[in-house]
Amino acid sequence: MEESVGKRALSPVIASVLLILLVLVLAVIIFLWARGFIGEQIEKLGQPIEESCRAVKFDAARFGSELEIRNIGDINIRYLDIKMFDGKGNSEAARFSFKIDAGKSVRDYATFEMADGSVPDKIIAYPVLVGKTQGTTANSMFTCIDSGVTL
Asked: What is the pLDDT of residues 116-134, one digit of tens each?
């Protein structure tokens, strides 16, 4: 049997370089994974958009196939997310383009019908605000889920 005295599989320099590369790759993977848990910060009027959501005040009324929205607050509403519920526990969502400036009202046609053609038992309208994504010039939409109004 031959002994391999003095032979090494990898030199210490190559092993060190590979170890450093492995640590860097793991750091990048952990960073990207953790970044998924941190949401984008959206701002409106220089503050987090959640603060603007607290200031949203609007009334909604349904007249047959028309929906009237009165914006009685100081924040412009750009869209409405509508959530419809039937009596069987099913729900569906839709987005309507209602551009309602502060202090104004809009009345427009809106179809409130479930996918199966049935009429929903309960309808909730949520205001959608447009703000800037922090650190960019991109606009982002944000649904104010705590400011919903039941129709």
From this structure: 888 888 889 999 998 888 7
Please give the Cα distance from 7 to 137 (Å, whole number): 59
Whole-prediction pTM: 0.68
Instruction: Name the CATH code of domain 42-150 (choices 3.30.390, 1.10.10, 3.40.50, 2.60.40).
Output: 2.60.40
CA–CA distance, 105 with 103 (Å, rounded to integer): 7
Q: What is the CA radius of gyration of the chain?
A: 27
Reduced 3-state DSSP string for the chain: CCCCCCCCCCCHHHHHHHHHHHHHHHHHHHHHHHHCCCCCCEEECCEEHHHHHHHCCEEEEEECCEEEEEECCCCCECEEEEEEECCCCCEEEEEECCCECCCCEEEEECCCCCCCCCCCCEEEEEEEEEEEECCCCCEEEEECHHHCEEC
d(CA 79, CA 145): 13
Rounded mean pLDDT of 18-32?
A: 93
Q: Give residue-wise pLDDT tens across range 109-120.
A: 887 888 888 888
